[in-house]
Amino acid sequence: xxxxxxxxxxxxxxxxxxxxxxVAHVRPDYHLYEDLxxxxxxxxxKLDGQKPRTEIDKLSFKKVLWQTxxxxxxxxRVCEHNTAIDEAYNLGEAAAWNNLVxxxxxxxxxxxxxxxxxxxxxxxxxxITQLVxxxxxxxxxxxxxxxxxxxxLRNVMEK
Length: 159
Known about the structure:
The protein is mostly helical. The chain has helices spanning about 5-10, 15-25, 35-45, 55-110, 110-125, 130-135, 140-159.
C-alpha cells in the first residue's frame, strides 16, 4: 500500500507522468492517469533509500511509459476484435441483401404454378391440400414442383 507521503510526492511531480503520456502520444486527460500516478508513487516507495531520486524518476518514467503502451495495445486488440465482429455482421447483411435480390430476379423467371407454390405455400403458409383445391393440379405434381423449386432457389443462393 502506497502511503500518503509518496502519493503527495508523485502528485507534486506529476509532470513525470504527463511527460510519459506525451512520449506515448496520449492526451493528458487519459482515463488511466490516476492509476499511473499511483504506479509512480509505488515506485517511489519501493526504491526510496536504495537509489538516488533522479534514478528513481528515470525508472518510474520508463515504467509509466511501458504501462501506458501496454494498456493502449490491449485496448487496440479489443477494438480490432470488435471491429471484426461488426464487419462479419455487416457482411452477413450484405449477403442477405444479395440473396434477396437474386431471389427477386429468379421469382420473375418462375412459371405461374411455381410462383403459386413460392408465394402462397412457402410464404403465406397455405397447405398443399388448399393449393390442390384452388389450382386443380394433382397433389403429386405440386409436391414435385415444390421440391424442384426449392432446389432451384438453393442453387441461386449458392452462386
